[in-house]
Amino acid sequence: MQHFKTLSSYLDYLGLPRPEHPLLSVFNSKGDGYLPCPRESSTPITNDCYSISFKKYVEGNLNYGRTKYDFTNGALIFISPRQVLQWDNSVVFERKGFSINFHEDFLKGTEIAQQIKKYGFFSYSTNEALHLSPKEEKQIETIVNNIEVEYQNNQDAFSKEIIIAQLDTLLKYANRFYERQFLNRKEISNDLLDQFNQYISKYFESGQLQENGIPSIEQIADKISVSQRYLSDTLKKETGKTTTEHLHLHLMDEAKNILLQPNKSIAEVAYELGFEYPPYFSRLFKKKEGLSPTEYRDKFKLN
Q1: I want to staple 98 with a disulfide (CB 3.0 to 4.6 A). Which of 28, 37, 53, 66 is the partner?
Q2: In this protein, which residues make up the domain named HTH araC/xylS-type (predicted)?
Q3: Up-side HSE of residue 109: CA atoms within 13 Å toward CB?
Q4: 136/43 Cα distance (integer angstroms)
Q5: Domains of the chain, each with CATH number or no CATH
Q6: For 60-95, b where at least 16 C-beta lie within 10 A, e where not — what string?
Q7: pLDDT, tens only, 50-107
């Protein structure tokens, strides 16, 4: 897999113009302007850059991580360093929109360098992209125009600080708009929860828990075709619990059933549930249920 350490080498690969700044590039179509069109296809590649782009009309399949997305509407897409990218000549990029690419070193020494790692949408797959309303689109365009002005001007001691501030504002708006998207897509949220519960139930019933151990969150997300971060964020917004917490609920319910079998030791129960270390199972059970496995078993006997 080819990896690009510099912004310039990445843009060269795409066939795009060299950046005005070694760590930052801004392409923005306004009026009758058009974005440069990247190469028609690519094998899997990675780079050390963040990308924020808005495409109004795109067709075809674009791979981002392990997920394919059929673009039928405009979307604001966020890509983090070292994410795997791939596309083929079936992808048609509409040449209106904007694309901001910046090397991770551009943020070094700033508050946003740490804050940007907390934005979950940089870990989302493209099929979880942010879809903007016309009003939201105009708000984002205003910020991008401000960034472009500073980018195109003769840069001085204030330029980077101003651009960083505008990027920070853009990301805060994106975070707000994602919150709105989660709220407005409750059907999808409910469907994800249903898919999650169905997968866990089948996993337990088929004996995979004993055979393969506790499934990872990444494995669950992959099976229901979403990214790990998007699944957790969606369930958190919908239910107040993360994916891990939902998985623990299933495990504890199963544990209660097995604990009622008196011929099994606590260690045997733990191993049957896929726990490698029985003490960890006991600690988790007590944390979730307020009783140790032994205390739970004794309490049931008394009843």
Answers
A1: 28
A2: 194-299
A3: 4
A4: 34
A5: 2-184 (2.60.120), 187-302 (1.10.10.60)
A6: eebbbbebbbebeebbbbbbbeebebbbeeebebbe
A7: 999 887 644 555 544 434 433 445 678 898 998 888 776 655 555 568 889 999 999 9
